[in-house]
Amino acid sequence: MDLDPVLIGRWQFGITTVYHFWMVPLTLGLGLLVAILQTMYHRTGNEMWLRATKFWGKLYLINFIMGVATGIVQEFQFGMAWSEYSRFVGDVFGAPLAMEALIAFFLESVFLGLWIFGWGRLSRKLHLGVLWAAVIGSWLSAYFIIVANSWMQHPVGVELIDGRPVMTDVFAVMTNSTALAAYTHTLAGATAVGGAFLLGIAWYHLWRRRKDGIDTVGPDGRVVVGSAPEVPGRDETDYSVWWRSLRIGGWTAVIAFVLVAITGDIQAKLMYEQQPMKMASAEASCHDGTEFSVLTIGDLSSNSCDDVVPVIEIPGILSFLANGDFSTEVPGVSTLIPEYEEAYGTHMPSDDMYGDYSGQEIDYQPSMFITYWGFRLMIGFGVLAAAAGALALWVTRKGTVPSSTFLTHLALWGITAPFIANSAGWIFTEMGRQPFVVAPNPDPSGIDGVFLYTAAAISPSVTPGELLFSLVSLTLVYGVLMVFELGLIIKYVRGGVVSAMPEIDTTNYKPVVDRSDDDVLSFAY
Amino acid sequence: MELMPTIWFVLIAVLWLGYLFLEGFDLGVGMLLKGFAKDERERRLLLNTIGPVWDGNEVWLITAGGATFAAFPMWYASLFSALYLPLTLALLALIFRAVAIEYRGKGYSDRWRSGWTWCLSAGSLVAAFCVGAMLALTTTGMPLNANGDNTGGPFAWLSLPAIVGGLGVVGFCLLHGLLYLSLKTDGPVRERARRTAALGAPFLLLPIVVWVIWVQLLNAKLLGWVLIVLAAACAVAMWVLIRRGAEKPAFIAQALFLVLGVASIFSNVYPNVMPSTLDPAFSLTVANASSSTYTLTVMLVVAAIFVPIVLVYQIWVYRIFASRLRVEHIPPAHQVPVAIRSHHQ
Fold it and tell me: Is residue B26 part of a domain?
């Protein structure tokens, strides 16, 4: 069997990274929101905020650990599967990775452990500070890894010495325009995930309370909050937990979307300058033009301009995305291919490091199907999530949710929208960089020769069988663990606040330990 | 001697030392969850001795990997690709282990708990073995060609040094975990941990001692012998101390043994970072595997600032959780309600 190691390696990197990036945005977005909730508790002393902190904090932790577990794979697989890549970029790429571990991961992991076990052991102020430290650690880690990724999109701060990029300016690497735009865009996207998560789940609980007849709606359409004394935790404070969570989630989703749009616009303009082919491919545009494609039909997967037919186009919009006006002719694929061929050659060098790709013709056009639809799914689901947030805020303005089961399902499924948008965006930007793993910097002041084809990046000594083994085993394990994570999240969501706060479950929970003993853990695994 | 690469060689050794010292005991405690702990209460006691700190400990591994990438990209690329299979196993083991620690307490059935106990124990065992195999092979060498690529095929790593190193780290972690439990718990578990450590110490340390001496014989540096003698003295002191019930001094002696043992290995191997068994000319050294002086300098500044900061807050966290735990300190498990439902519809 003749398996292409590059293809298997790419599938593995794609699967493990997309999967990892389901956990990460939730960790980033929900972490921020939990820290804000605990800050509110600290400031007001209102039990509602404490309950909200504990409930959302529990879900945060269930998800956090999966991000940690799948993150280790990321750190190792560059060297394992992509050793030629690691050798080529190590001088500049390893630095942000090491900084990420040293500056961000320690902060995140050490302080989160302290936060989990620190209830009642630390002063309230210190306990809050510890959570903020962990959240800042998460947000810092995103910065460093995006600096590393952005260097692959737009290499800066290096010189080519003996065929390898050597770092000469760490500040240029850390302030890469691509990194700053991608970081803010990613973080805004992650915040949107946090918002949708709060919104959907809080909606479910408000609906549940209505369905169970606890809360009712008065003649003026306003909520009449009730309580169900026989059900642990279903009191009036419980209503406030969900109502506040819903409003915070809705506003977060809307505000995050505005930031996503602004930063996305900046990114698109950078992409036009730095990776014009990615933009042309995302538009499935063969020829220069100003039109943004709303719908293009035909066989995108053939990767040939001749097979696709733009059906609906809006003139001027692509120019606006790329350059801020309505008349710039944005180059199409047919214009760009000869430019790339002139700059970087028509064939892979005949060299062992290119493996089966040695001497082969280079296709400079990324997958049109993936980039075209990736770009549109990202925008479409992003807009959908924001619109749902705005709509939810309007519908719930009188204090609770409608009794509609359909809307509740919509609110819960709506949680997936920003996740899809995040995944689609990353798949688009990573696949749009092909056939390069390190894309060339086309800027006149850019660095000649600093680019690397994906085909030349794979580990020469690793066999397709080894790659297949890790691909299959990691995918299976990830699949199984997803079932466990979702199962636990659903279980804790259904259980409501009491699932995270046994102390308010006075009917079922009788702590037998001696609370006067300081060493008793307030929480234990 | 190349100054910057040498400093970074020492720093990488320090990071591995930090990893083995810290995660050493939580891997050990993880393994001991199966077999050593007698019932569910004891298992939860063991788990909660490492609960607040294990994740921070594991970051030492990530940092060692990341710093190797930054400072010695050729070493990182050759070592990680040559050990593709064992590292895949290590990753799977670490994934199961991490998830098990967090998820085990979030279900109540016996099946749920014993399943995650297995994941935690086996995960800790496999992770320790594979990390040990990797460390051993980077000191004894692999069949690397001129490009630094393994020429021995997918199973070239499966060799005597890898097994000795793997068992070495497993044994060390088990003993380290027992000593940690004798320090961190009170009651029957403390007694049992102390007795087991006193009984098992010589056997548990045997493979790691074989590895240290193996590297010494391969390289035969005088400094190495000096360090080995000192390390051996610490090991003996540890054994004597734990037999006498001096838990804290025993733990310190064990830590010194680790420091001196790792120092002996790394100083013997220097200036190689990963020898080639095909041709010494293909060996990766601190000089030919390292990043540029600029990158090493930048990273040294970062490390000089942040390693001490990390140490300060990590030690602070250990002090917060310094007191001994007894089974009575573990709150009872709370069953999550299936679904909140009101009855007065």
Answer: yes
- Per-residue DSSP letters for B55-108? HHHHHHHHHHHHHHHHH-HHHHHHHHHHTHHHHHHHHHHHHHHHHHHHHGGG--
* A91–chain B nearest CA distance, Å: 5
Distance of CA A275 to the CA centre of its chain: 22
Is A508 close to B335, i.e. CB distance below 8 A?
Answer: yes
Q: How many residues make up chain A in this entry?
A: 525
- Low-confidence residues of chain A: pLDDT under 50: none
Cα–Cα distance for residue pair A459/A472, rounded to 1 Å: 18
> Quick one: tokens of A173?
């690497």
Query: Given the structure tokens 């990893």, which residue do they identify?
Result: B19
> How far does Cα A355 stand from its chain's mean position?
33
Compute the distance between CA of residue B175 and CA of residue A506 in angstroms, rounded to an integer.
Answer: 43
Question: pTM of the predicted model, to two decimals?
Answer: 0.94
Segments forming the whole domain that contains residue B60:
3-318
Residue B332 covered by a domain: no
Q: Which residues 400-459 of A are in CB contact (within 8 Å) with B?
A: 459
Judging contacts by C-beta atoms under 8 Å, the chain A residues touching residue B298 are 95, 167, 170
Of the CA atoms within 13 Å of residue A185, those in its CB half-sphere come to 27
The pLDDT value recorded for residue A513 is: 53
Q: How far apart are CA B197 and CA B191, in angstroms?
A: 10
Q: Is residue B335 part of a domain?
A: no
Q: Which of A138, A147, A525 is the best mutation test for B, with the most CBs of B within 10 A?
A: A525
C-beta neighbour count of B175 within 10 angstroms: 28
- Tell me which chain B residue has its CA closest to the CA of residue A144: B66
- Kindly give, in sequence order, each residue whose CB lies less than 8 Å from that of residue B323, ignoring residues fewer than 6 positions away: A518, A519
Are residues A461 and B58, on separate chains, in Cβ contact within 8 Å? no
Residue B8 is part of a domain; what is its CATH number? Answer: 1.20.1630
Long-range pairs, A239-242, Cβ under 8 A, ≥24: A239/A206, A239/A209, A239/A214, A239/A215, A240/A48, A241/A48, A241/A51, A241/A52, A241/A55, A241/A202, A241/A205, A241/A497, A242/A202, A242/A205, A242/A206, A242/A209
CB A76 to CB B66 under 8 A?
Answer: no
> CA dist B306 to A32, A51, A86, B301, B310, Å?
24, 35, 24, 9, 6
- Whether A95 sits inside 8 A of B47 (CB atoms) is no
Cβ-nearest to A492 among B88, B299, B336:
B336
Number of structural domains found in chain B: 1
**What is the four-CA torsion angle of B218, B219, B223, B229, rounded to 10 degrees?**
0
Residue among A65, A462, A69 at smallest CA distance from B92: A69
What are the structure tokens assigned to A131, written together?
Answer: 């959570």
Short-list B90, B82, B101, B87, CA closest to B125? B90
> What mean pLDDT, rounded, does chain A reach?
90
Q: What is the DSSP string of A421-452?
A: HHHHHHHHHHHTTTTEEE----STTS-TT--E
The predicted structure's pLDDT at residue B331: 85
Chain B residues within an 8 Å CB radius of A469 = 85, 88
Calpha distance A432→A454 (Å, rounded): 12
> A524 and B65 in contact by Cβ < 8 A?
no
Backbone angles phi, psi at B325, to 5 degrees: -105, 140
User: Token pair 């809080």 is at which residue?
Assistant: A202
DSSP B325: B
Tokens of B81: 């690709």
Please give the Cα distance from A168 to A157 (Å, whole number). 6
Given a cut of 70, the residues of chain B with pLDDT beneath it are 1, 338-345
Could you give the CA distance from residue B329 to residue B326 in angstroms, rounded to a whole number?
5
CB contact under 8 A, B76 and A86: yes
State whether B101 and A65 contact (CB < 8 Å). Answer: yes
Asked if residue A183 lies in contact with residue A405, where contact means CB atoms within 8 angstroms, the answer is no
- Which token pair is A78? 């560059």
